[in-house]
Design goal:
It contains eight helices and seven strands, in the order αααααβββββααββα. With 225 residues, it is α/β, with parallel strands linked by helices. Strands 1, 2, 3, 4, 5, 6 and 7 form a seven-stranded mixed sheet that branches. Mean pLDDT is 76; it is low at 221-225.
Length: 225
């Protein structure tokens, strides 16, 4: 089915006129799947398929766009509506995770001060059983979770989720209308008793599980790379 759709999308791939392509349509699809499945670098693809790294990039870009379009990845304007439907009436955990990368010299914003390593930050919606609901786009590793959360458009999306609610840690301070979190203690001021009770409930029942649930989810997803 994939090959048939690819042949329809690229009818001139094996066109006898002009410079012949280095890879067949099937090989180009295999290259793309290798990169998606194993997170293979272009150097890996260069060695596996005996083509230049730039050539590997040239084959990967149209193929990944074809796969995304052909198999129903929603357009940008539909993603927020779709995610709001998934979260309707749902309580979920929200957390960010750093995906390590190499230190690309042309990118000066990948260094995470918190983790002291380079990477990209991804926000995650995870249900209370640790199952992934949705990841965000990747943001620079130097960005704070709150910055990523807002840049992903998730604040407005939760507002339209019809009862959906996120639970997070104090990294999301400032968006309490969208995310429930422990009450932060102010300098030189003790928490009220009801605030202490709220913190105890959130911490014992949910917050202690927040990072391990999200880490479990990331580990499960990452095992397939």
């Amino acid at each position: 089915m994939v090959i048939e759709r690819a042949e329809q999308a690229f009818p001139d791939w094996d066109k006898p006129v002009g410079r012949p392509k280095t890879l067949s349509l099937l090989q180009a699809l295999k290259l793309t799947v290798c990169r998606l499945r194993r997170n293979a670098t272009y150097q890996d693809l260069h060695e596996d398929f005996e083509i230049g790294r730039t050539t590997a990039w040239d084959y990967y870009q149209p193929m990944v766009a074809f796969l995304a379009h052909a198999f129903g990845y929603p357009d940008k304007e539909d993603q927020e509506e779709l995610l709001a439907m998934l979260l309707e009436g749902t309580v979920c955990l929200i957390d960010g995770t750093l995906v390590p990368t190499v230190n690309w010299r042309q990118h000066k914003d990948l260094l995470s001060g918190k983790h002291r390593r380079h990477g990209v930050t991804i926000q995650l919606f995870v249900d209370l059983h640790g199952r992934l609901i949705c990841p965000s786009l990747a943001f620079p590793g130097s960005w704070h979770d709150m910055h990523c959360f807002r840049a992903a458009g998730w604040v407005d999306m939760i507002a339209h989720a019809d009862g959906g609610r996120g639970i997070g840690d104090l990294a999301y301070e400032g968006e309490r209308k969208a995310v429930s979190m422990p009450v932060k203690k102010k300098p030189k001021k003790e928490l009220a008793e009801f605030e202490k009770k709220i913190n105890t409930i959130l911490w014992n029942m949910v917050s202690e599980q927040l990072h391990c649930k999200c880490d479990r989810c990331v580990g499960t997803a990452g095992s397939g790379l």
